[in-house]
What we know:
165 residues, mainly beta, globular, Lipocalin
Amino acid sequence: xxxxxxxxxxxxxxxxxxxxxxxxxxxxxxxxxxxxxxxxxxxxxxxxxxxxxxxxxxxxxxxxxxxxxxxxxxxxxxxxxxxxxxxxxxxxxxxxxxxxxxxxxxxxxxxxxxxxxxxxxxxxxxxxxxxxxxxxxxxxxxxxxxxxxxxxxxxxxxxxxxxxx
Length: 165
């Protein structure tokens, strides 16, 4: 699957416009055997200043743990982005076409008392009515260790249209 495969899919995903202001996401992490390991919610606030999207993500996990990540996202071309936050190794590279955005990056992930260096193949797909579906495959040493699934919504978004009734 390549981002270009989605060039004609709608609605077109404008990353800056979607994440400007507030949004919320609900997510899960499943290990490679399909066992649900974590559930979480994320409250997100985005601001665009001088061409940079600052995205503050506040995570609350089902075990009570909290975490904050602050992304800095730069549009580097017609279809390309770069992103950074504290645990990313180097820079996340993003490519957007149509309703899809694909991020690839490595990060140092806290696991128990240690840290694992893992890579993410992270796909986001904008759906009608402001719903954003996100699936990320997580790998360590090239082997898939699990998958993250998230569903984003904007406040006051019409989640059910007349056509769906």
